Amino acid sequence: MWIENSAPCECATERENLAPSRDRKGAVEAICQLYPSLTVGARTSVFPPEVFLKILSIDTSSRAGSILLGEDQKVLGEINLDSSETHSVRLLSGVDYLLKNLGIRLLDLDAFAVVSGPGSFTGIRIGLTTVKGLADSTSKPVIPITALEAWVEKFPRLQGTIVPLIDARRGEVYAAVFERIGDAVKELDAGKVAKPAQILSQLVQEQIVFIGGGATQYRDLLINCCHPGWKVATCDPFLGRSMARIAYQRAMDGRFTSAQDLQAYYLRRSDAEIYWKEQ
User: Fold this and answer.
1) Could you give the angle at the alpha carbon of 80 between the alpha carbons of 78 and 84, nearest 5°?
2) The pLDDT value given to residue 226
3) Alpha-helix runs per DSSP H in 76-184
4) CA torsion angle for 231, 234, 237, 238 (degrees, to 10)?
């Protein structure tokens, strides 16, 4: 087994330089289905075909938070901050700072993307609550993305089996198994939470790349596994850019949800619930 410190992460990808698709039919139809009460004029103003699609992506699932505004596949601006300060203190002020410095109003946005989990329960609640409020007040749709999906997208050139590991505390990790063949990504094993050793014991693939903060945290355990085909790839902890790429593609496919239907992607009860149950 070996550790790869210069993994082909999103920093090296050329995807952001690709000419974006201009086909908005699926996105417009999805907006109209979510908001049937909109008039025809209002509907066209939600997704005007002559302008690029603006999506605000927000990740508060860990202490490494991201706020990114994308216009189709171009990054207009982003704020990445790895801090112990709670997201409730910095999130709305960060959104306001980013939009004001770009000269863009909240109503100019077409959709919001948010990491729905797994991760910090407090962070996820802050992110979802904020996005629900912003989306509801502007009558704009939401694109939920899991942190596991976003981590896989951070390494767009990795092929084969990819296992993102995210610290779940209590000596556990959140994990899922993905496979990328060409540009197609498929989830082979749905998200779960367990002890790292238990996760590893269930993996049968000979070639695996582990990614995410959990992979870094439990690197020694992974190194000591007698699997020469298992690797660990490292990168920065910010998910904004990978979220933006996923959000753009889902928007073009018309894969939205409304603010009212936005749900957290929890894989276990919170520590407070566990503590109460154990009393």
Assistant:
1) 150
2) 74
3) 87-102, 121-138, 147-153
4) -100
- Domain 149-233: homologous superfamily in CATH: ATPase, nucleotide binding domain (3.30.420.40)
- β-bridge mates for residue 71, sequence order: 54, 74
- Higher pLDDT: 50 or 275? It is 50
pLDDT digits (tens, 9 = 90+) for 189-238: 999 999 999 999 999 999 999 999 999 999 999 988 878 899 999 999 99
Q: What DSSP element (H or E) covers 188? A: strand 184-194
Q: Write down the residue that tokens 């990491």 correspond to.
A: 115
- The Cα–Cα gap between 81 and 172 comes to 25
Dist CA 6 CA 235 (whole Å):
8
Report the alpha-carbon distance of residue 202 to residue 43 in Å, rounded: 48
State the chain's mean pLDDT as an integer: 85
Domain borders along the chain are 15-146+238-278, 149-233
- Provide the pLDDT for residue 128: 97
| CATH of region 15-146+238-278 | 3.30.420.40
For residue 146, the SS3 value is: strand
Let me know: does 199 contact 189? Beta carbons within 8 Å. Answer: no
Q: What is the pTM of this model?
A: 0.83
Q: What is the pLDDT of residue 269?
A: 73
Of 191, 124, 120, 113, residue with least CA distance to 152: 191
Q: 12 pLDDT exceeds 80?
A: no
Q: Give the closest residue to 242 by CA, choosing from 33, 32, 70, 98.
A: 70
